[in-house]
């Protein structure tokens, strides 16, 4: 234990990562700004990975138990009325008063002995050491240069600038609407581009995206825009934005950087796909799989009352009791303070799955379900409970898929990690289905996620080679976006139009889960 004593010596010019307690004696009664400065000496901490944040403010991070006690600053004074003044001063300054974070653990029940031989996709293991193949460690370093892979010419990068520029010129008179044709930047446009700056931006971008196993040849960047390399991109831009002007020059620079960023991602994923395509195989799901590792829920919230008076804690205790009893398929906590929902059903291999309602001030790790994920699991459970005759002879299992750190991802779809894995066992066969509840307002109708239902059939063919017991693979998008919000043109007008492309409209189709099972049973 270290104790520092000083007379107004620690107000400014001194920092310590971990001050646990401040004792104030005859200071701050009139010097409001000084006491706030002194308060700042104790609230700074280093945080995990130099984040400078407390654990409660870090998303997707499982915090050690009782870490909040270490991260809490205690302040005491020699007189109670003085501390009351101090607390009032903090409130006037917009700072928290006598708050603390309460915690509640809700255990996760993992169903490991499900009695069936469920199959999952996984990278093959190396014969030498039994380790799974790793792209960064085992693949040759991809070099982005002037040579464009044929696959990327078949699926060029498309940058559509029309919506962006229309938004910038609100008020201009639009008399006609035409379908834009792709154009290409000329040497005159590219003469304004600082290629060194572009290369540095791309280096920063690849680190941000985790593409460390990639080299970018700076000298090849301008060559990619030569006339004989035009096949890798399509640029849709209003003609007036291509006329020579200093204002448009800034636009050309942004467009070049945007196209190259998209090309870097497409190029990296192409090489990653080429590496993993022959190295995926079907394996039996075991209790050692990362998706089945037990992670109890840690719920924390700010409170100013004792535990026996905390309504949030009472609500969560009631929720935990209902989860243990599991008398209902979907459990909603009875109180209004916690705003936490839990789902428990026979099909789930992880029980419970938690969801925070709007307005909940609780922090949960691991990450709870978002609204669309919760809606899908709730609707799936209701369907299995109310319409079992429609799935006569079939067994269904559901598992949440980790987004990173051991989850099942598909580089063919741009490092796509579907939210759920669903198994349907029927007549000795096994259907493995990847389901992604996901809004589509920011997706393109020809995007990799939308077309993944076709891509996965190629994976299915490869992994079933030489197998006696053929496994069927499928994929669905469960969209929380209203169909009317998606102006995707001809061929995307009705529920059947979306359904045949394995897109389920959660809000437009009350029986979207039944539609999914109907397609699976007919396959």
> How many helices in DSSP terms?
14
**Strands, count:** 21
> What does the radius of gyration come to?
28 Å
Our measurement of the CA-to-CA distance between the termini, rounded to an integer number of angstroms, reads 69 Å
Residues in β-strands, percent? 15-25%
Report on this model:
This protein has 523 residues and is α/β, with parallel strands linked by helices. It contains 14 helices and 21 strands. The chain has helices at 32-43, 67-70, 80-92, 135-138, 150-154, 162-168, 187-190, 195-208, 246-276, 311-325, 371-386, 452-463, 495-499, 512-522; strands at residues 21-24, 74-77, 100-106, 109-110, 119-123, 143-144, 157-160, 215-216, 233-236, 280-284, 297-303, 330-332, 340-343, 350-351, 353-356, 363-365, 394-400, 420-426, 429-437, 471-479, 503-505. The protein has a five-stranded mixed sheet with strand order 17-18-19-20-21, sandwiched between helices. The protein is globular, with a radius of gyration of 28 Å. The N and C termini lie far apart (69 Å).
Please sum up the structure shown.
The chain is of the alpha/beta class. The chain is 29% helix and 19% strand.
Q: What layout of secondary structure does this protein have?
A:
Blueprint: E1 21-24, H1 32-43, H2 67-70, E2 74-77, H3 80-92, E3 100-106, E4 109-110, E5 119-123, H4 135-138, E6 143-144, H5 150-154, E7 157-160, H6 162-168, H7 187-190, H8 195-208, E8 215-216, E9 233-236, H9 246-276, E10 280-284, E11 297-303, H10 311-325, E12 330-332, E13 340-343, E14 350-351, E15 353-356, E16 363-365, H11 371-386, E17 394-400, E18 420-426, E19 429-437, H12 452-463, E20 471-479, H13 495-499, E21 503-505, H14 512-522
Parallel strand pairs: 1-2, 6-8, 7-9, 19-20, 20-21
Antiparallel strand pairs: 3-11, 4-14, 5-10, 11-16, 12-13, 13-15, 17-18, 18-19
Helix pairs in contact: 8-9
